[in-house]
Design goal:
Number of domains: 2
Distance between the termini: 66 Å
GO molecular function, one term: kinase activity
Number of strands: 5
Keywords: Kinase, Membrane, Transferase, Transmembrane, Transmembrane helix
Helix content: 55-70%
Organism: Marvinbryantia formatexigens DSM 14469
Oligomer: single chain
Protein name: Sensor histidine kinase VirS
Shape: elongated
Order of helices and strands: HHHHHHHHHHEHEEHEE
Length: about 450
Amino acid sequence: MRIVWEIIEYLVCFVETYIAYKVLEIFFPARNSRKKQKEMIILALVGAVVTRICNQISLFSYFTIFISVFYSSVSGMYIYRAKCIQVLSIISFYGLCLCGLDFLVMTTISSFYKDIDMLNYLLMEMSSLRIGVIFFTKILWVAIYLVLKKYLKKISFTIKGTYAALLTSVIGFCGFIFLAEQAMQIFNYTVPWVWFMFICILVLIVLVFYFMIEQQKEKTALSFMEMQSRLLEDKYKTLNDVYMENAKLYHDLNNHLNTLYQLLEEKQGEAAKAYIKEISKPILKLSKTIWTGVDVVDVIINSKLEKMEQLGIEADINVEYPSECNITPNDMCTILSNLLDNAIEAAAETEQKGCVCLTVRRINYLLLIKVTNPCSEHIKSFEDIPKTTKANKNLHGWGLRSVRDTVEKYSGTLECGAQDGVFTVKIMMQWEKKAKIV
C-alpha cells in the first residue's frame, strides 16, 4: 500500500510542477510548442523526483517549498528563455496560491474530524487520508487552472507589475508561514475561515492586478487609435497625391500626342524630341518604382522612395515578393510603411543621412524582410523592441509594436539590433499560396 501512496505522491508533485509550466506558457507562448511540451514533461518529472527526495526528510517543510519554487523558476527560464524576475514573480505567486489552497482544504478536513491533531497528522504522516486529501486538492487545482486560463491570457507583465507581484509573493509567504505555524500549534475551528480569508485576499490581489492592467490597456488602446488615425490620414493623403498625379498624366496624354503630331507634321523634329524629353520626366519617375505586384504596397514603397529623395537619403531597394501570397496587402503596408517611416526618420536625424536599405526575399515558404538605416551612436542594446525617444511616450513608439503584432499573425519573428551606428530590423514570416476559387 505504501508503494501506491508513494506513486500518487510522485504524480501529485509532477502535476504541481507541470501546471506551473503551463501557467508560464500563458505569459510566454512557446514558438516550437511540440519541443517545449517534451521539455516540460521531462523537467516536471525531474522536479517531482527532487520534491520527493526533500519529502523523505519531512513530508511538509518550508525548505521543500523553497526548493520547488527555485527549481520551477530556473527550469521555467530555461524552457521559455524568459527574464529571471518575471518567471520568479509568477512562480512565487503560483506557489503561494497552491500552498494556501492546500492548507484551506486540510484545515477544513481537520475541522470536520474535530481533532486538533488531525492537521499535523495530514501534514506529517503518510496515510490513505492524506493521499485522498492531496489528490482532491490537485484535481481542484487543475480545475481552477482550466477556468482561469482564458483570463490569465489577458494579463501582461510590465516592469512595475513584475516587481509588485514578487513583493506580494514575499509578503504573502511571510503571512503563510505565520498562519501555518499558528494552525499547527493552536488549532481551533476558526482556522479554516482564516485560511479562506487568506485565499480571498490572494484572489482580490489578482483581481486588482487584472482590472489595473485592463484599465491601462484601455488607455493605451485610445492612444493607439489616435496615433493610427493620424497615420491613416497621412497614408491616404500620400496615396491620393500619387493617384492624382497619375490621373493628371493620363488626362494630358491625349493633348501631348496631338502636340507631337502637329510638330511632326510641320517637320519640327528637334522641337518634337525636346517635347518628348520634357513629358517623359514623370514617366521616368514612375518607372523607378519597385514593384511587388501588389498595387497598394507598390505605392507605399514608391512614396517612401520619393520622401527619401526629398530628404537627401540614399535608398537601396531589393524586392522579391511571392505572387498569390496569403499575406494581405493591408498587413504588408503596415509592416513596410512603419519600418520605412522609422528608418527615414532615424536617417534624417543623422549628419551624413546615409542609406536606407530594404530587402525582401522569399526562401521556399518563408518571407524575409530586412531594413537597415543609420542611427545615433548612443543606441546600443535593448530587449524586444527599442523604446521611443520621442517626448510623448503614449502616442509614439507604436510602429514596431504594430509590426510585431502583424508579423505574429503569420507565425513570424521580429528582431531588432543596433551596431556601429546601423539599426537593423529583421523579419521572418511564413506564407502560403492563396487558394484558387474554382
